[in-house]
Amino acid sequence: KTLWWLALLQSVAQRLPSTAHLRWCNMSKLYVDELQPKTTGNLIQLPTVPFVHIYGASTQTGVANATTTEAVIDTVFVDTHGLADVANNRIKIPTGLAGYYWIKAGSRQDWISTRDMLTIGIGPDSQPFEWFTEINANSNQNSRYPTLHCDGVRYLNEDDTVIAKLYQTSTATKTYYGGQSSRFIIAYRIGG
Question: Is the pLDDT at 17 greater than 60, yes or no?
């Protein structure tokens, strides 16, 4: 009974570039009484272009030790449906576009701390966010340019926002690099 959901996740992973590094933050089970066979085409048709891809264009410096800091996401790469709110470093779901989204965020910093975290927050601005996190705990602080990616499928309501936050424990301030694949949030709408 969970095969349809697994097929959806596998289809999403197959259609996205460079998926070898993906780690699903949360998995769900779909319980149904009956599954209907798909009789035409591929398993699931997904868009090849995301609804939105926003990123931090320049280096974000001064991310303090043991402090959660909102990632600066200030540039639009793709925004086919008006989701980008780069003035506030986020994606915001407009009227009529509630649905299931595959969301991914990434960050690349100048060295590995004892603990690095990238967190995606989802929810309305006026209420507590739902968070999901990718954690990298490593005692080798000499490794250069480590990257964290966090992703998952979530249902987003109209006016929900998506933000990314950074956290590190290095005993010093850190630098997070800018660029389309260095500090970003991407969202694909995969269902209504």
Answer: no
